[in-house]
Structure prediction request, 98 residues.
Amino acid sequence: MKNPHDIIIEPVLTEKSYDAMQEKKYTFIVDKNANKTEIKKAVEAIFGVKVEKVNTVRMQGKKKRLGVHVGRRPSFKKAYVRLTEDSKEIEFFEGMAE
Prediction:
C-alpha cells in the first residue's frame, strides 16, 4: 500500500473550498493515479476522520505562453471529500479559514 502522504499532495485553499467546509466538504490535490478508495483511506489515516464520499476530477493544466512559445502547466487530479455527519472537522483547515 502507498504512503497516505504520497496520495494527498496538498489542500486546495480557495473561497469556494472555504464555503464548502461548512458542509464538511474538503478539497485536495491528489496523486493522478490514486483511486477513490485509496484517497478515502489516506484522508482517514492522516486526519483521523470518517469519509462518506469522494468525488474526483482530472484538471487540465492551463496554457501559458512566453513570446512565441506556447506551453502548458502540469495537469493534476482534484478530490472533493465529504465527511460523515458524526465525524469531527479537520483541524488543519480550521486555522486557515479564519
